[in-house]
Every structure is written in structure tokens, then in C-alpha cells.
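Sharing in case it's useful to others searching the archive later.

Someone asked me privately for the predicted structure of Acyl-CoA dehydrogenase, so I'm posting the question and my answer publicly. Question first, with the sequence:
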Amino acid sequence: MLSRHGTGRASGRESAADRAFRAEVRDWLETNLTGEFADARGLGGPGREHEAFDVRLAWERHMAAAGWTCLGWPVEYGGRGATVAQQVIFHEEYALARAPARVGHIGENLLGPTIIAFGTDAQRARFLPPIAAAEELWCQGYSEPNAGSDLAGVRTRAELVDGEWRVTGQKVWTSLAAEADWCFALCRTEPGSARHAGLSYLLVPMRQDGVEVRPIVQMTGTSEFNEVFFDGARTDAANIVGAPGDGWRIAMATLGFERGVATLGQQVGFRRELEGVVELARRTGAVDDPLLRDRLVRAWMGLEIMRLNAVRTMAGVAGDLARPPGSGRAPDAPGPESSISKLVWATWHRELGELAMDVLGAAGLVADAEPYELNEWQRLFLFSRADTIYAGSNEIQRNIIAERVLGLPREPKGTA
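And my answer, the predicted C-alpha cells:
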């Protein structure tokens, strides 16, 4: 299924320029995935972010030096101004080469597009180059213990004192916080405000007194997720994206980017996992079971539909990023429709984990080694249970789609 000739994407339907770009990407990866980088092939990703992190960071910087990060960003901001087709090609070839999982995706795919769309010229000059160079890593400070899917309930507060924002509160489920240099955090900056009002989008340095990161051990035994405690943490007054109180609008745009452009890179890992499950079914003989074979086919169909939807969404985002920045309005593409993407991929990936365990059969119930050494399929099953919860639970996504896309009546509030 994942081949250069069986997908129709490396076929004569590509333009001559795109075929040349594909060859350039493929040749560069083959030439550069050598030595320690070759040993990191296939490492990393959800549930496995602990694998060879330092080598993967070095690989990210190696890519950056050669101009292979931030492909879709405009050239003037350190990107390549790549077309949607070229970005798709890059992700496909990256997956085919089994290159290491990226470590800078939060900055590149979430914060970067947000700064391009809403930031000041000074913010673009300060924050975009280190992201493109993989010199600064980012995490996302949204969820809190009592404000996960209900993001409007955040309580972390920030006040402006002597030219600095001072941040106090707690964030949770913060991916890669232990490795991050910076956090973009949604904070309540207007005392007495409630829900969507009075929120601001702040850029906060992680490596300072007043910031404590506590890893959360997951079912996989790893700790990509973290608790982050802010106790008077400081950031410059200029490190606010948009105006004070405008944080909700900007935070929603960031989520739109997360559910649009970023999902395409995510799907290359999904495709690799599906290929592995198919091969596992062949080895175990599970492919001869007509019910499992039907589920494998449906998984492939679901992934193709997911990809086409992501490309459609990505085309809108790419066109939006090409507009002059600073218009003060949210991008068109990352609207409520992007919740469809989140709902689809989260459900699909969770079901893939379940399918992998069914293909393994009884052997899937036994750890590979003591004390708790899991194989890749057990990790996939356990970690993907979180997919339908983080970045907006399935229930919340369905409400958004119903109310804001389909125009159905809003869910009654406060009636319990």
C-alpha cells in the first residue's frame, strides 16, 4: 500500500516540476540518512518520543541547515514557499525513507503559522528563525486539570507587572514540555472574566525559575505528557500574540493549524503503522480470517479518505499563509470544519490499535520482557486510547461540528 508506484501519487499525474521535486527529496534523504542518522530510522513518534531524542534533534538541525524544515512557510519567513503538492510529496518520501520522527513539529506546524498570521514583525523576526533552524523547541500550554476539552475554563492567570507578564497556574497533558524551550500558553489576563472573554495568548520561556515540569507516566511506561506548574513565571510584555483578551480567537486558529497542515505529516506515520499491521497479519495468518481482512481493507480506505480531506484542508491553509500577515483576522481555512479532521484521525488511529491487538491474538496480552517491555503494537494500542481525548475529545468535536458546521441547535448548558 505504501509504495512509490502503487498509490497513484508518484505517477504521470504529477507535473514535471513535482516529479523533479520528488526526485530531489528522495535523493537528499538517501544521501543523508547515513551513520547515526541511519540508526535512527523508524524511531520516535507517539508513545515513542523517548527514542533517540538527541539524535533526532541533531537530524532536525541537519535538515534545517539544508532547507528542509518549514516547507510551507513563505520564503521571507524562512520557509521554501512549497506548494501543497510539494509538501505532500515531501511527507510521502519522508515516510518511505523511514526517517526519524520529527521533534520540532509543534513549533513548525502550530506556533509558526500562528505567528505568521497574527504576530508582529518583531515577533516574526524573533521567533520564526529559531523554529526553522530547530534551535528552539515549543510546547502547547492549553489544557488544565479542570479545563481539558472545555478549554474556555482555563484558570492559569497572568498579570502585567513592570513590563512583564507574570504567569501563575497549572497546565497538564503538555506534550514534550521537558524538552521545550518555550511554551505558547492560554492565560486569563482580565481578573473576573469568564469563559472565552479575558484570555490572552502568551509566549513563555520554559527554562527559568518559576516553571516546574513533572512527567506523567503513561500506560506505555513513557512520559511524553507532562504537568507544568507556573509560579510567577515571567515573560516580556511584548510576548503576547494579538491584543490582550484576544487569546481565544488566536488559540482556535492554532488548533485549526494543528488539525489541518500538521495532520498530513502525522498521517505518514499512520500509513507506516498500517503497513506493519498488514505484514503482521500475513505472518500470523490472521489475514486469512475474512473479518480481519475486511477490517484491514476498511482501515486502508479510511486512511485514504483521511489523506484527501487533509490535503483539501491544507490547500486552504497554504493559500491563507500566502496572504500578507497582520490583517488582524483569523485565517479562513482553520475553521470549525477542522474538527472533522480531528474526529476522523483520532477514531481511525484508536481502531488501528484495536485491530493490531486482534491480529496479535492472545500473544498481545503478554509483555515482551520484564518488567514492562512492550512491543510496538502493544504501545500503539495503549497510546492510541488517548487519541480521542487529547487535542479536543471526540464528544467536543461532534458538538463543534453539529453547532458550528451543520448549524444545529446548541447543546443546553447548565441543565444537569
